[in-house]
Amino acid sequence: MSSPTPSRRNLWPAGIIVVCSLFVTGIAGLLVMACSQKSDLVSKDYYEQELRFQSQIDRVELTRREASKASVIYELAGKRITIRLPSGQDRSKVKGSIELYRPSAAGLDRAFALEPDADGVQHLDAAGLAEGLWRVRVSWTAGEQSYYLEEKVVVGAKAS
User: Fold this and answer.
1) Structural domain tally of the chain?
2) Is 123 contained in some domain?
């Protein structure tokens, strides 16, 4: 006589139902989260910003073309930053600003008025600046033309 074997319950259907319900719940959760996120990709004054940005591009291109002799150099020996404007510009009509931008620490940023000498050169004392990477941004107008020059300098290190 054979003894009856206990019936084993098959767990596959329950497992498939649990996995499917977790999948549907997860998708629903992601859908709710995605729909609740702000998706404003365009600002209200998008066209005005685009015009300002295009004007900046035009200034950079003009500087590259016409004022190619403009330069920003860090002098390690004198611990100073030298800004040289192109020679063809009337010094009496040059107005502008210099911004020393520190990408790693916004609190160290500095701004100066652009006041070149008769040769179109201005020196900035760099002895008080923290060592490391700085971006020197020079914006100026000469007559009716606007120019913009941005150069990277590494203060406290030899130029490479």
Assistant:
1) 1
2) yes
